[in-house]
């Protein structure tokens, strides 16, 4: 089992009993989704925004317009932090203070660089699309060069990271267990609904099988 070395940057202080530093476990959290939150400083203000991403080994890939101020800011700083979080349940206790949620989260720290090779950029964009819906890229029209030219792809190398996970029931005060108040979990799950075809489709265009497969596995 490989773990990230604990340091002042990635060490979980509050709720340290829920901390995870195992690389494989953290990668499992990253691979369970495709949306992350990226932090940066712009004009002196700290800002965090959601972004689509793809992971390969110890790299996270982001993309956006060549005018994207977040990507330009982290490239100038050459470093950033990225957080991924999945909500698994609402934890409803007998008192407001002990309400919580079950979750899996990972926070990553590392350095950034711009991907400049067009072939590498195209391969990464393909991976980002296929991370959302597997096998989708191959059904699309080829990318125009002008589209590639207008796109920045950033490679973020994970240097250190930690995860924090809560997966348990209600933790109430001992005396509160005698109260006639309901407590428990409401599990939360993100699901796919049936695909809705664009109303401008050409006649005879059916929903592709890989889209139907995605729906069947996520409904």
Automatic annotation (TrEMBL):
It comes from Tenacibaculum adriaticum. This is Nitroimidazol reductase NimA-like FMN-containing flavoprotein (Pyridoxamine 5'-phosphate oxidase superfamily). SUPFAM superfamilies: FMN-binding split barrel. Pfam families: Pyridox_ox_2 (PF12900). Gene3D superfamilies: Electron Transport, Fmn-binding Protein, Chain A (2.30.110.10). It comes from the Bacteria.
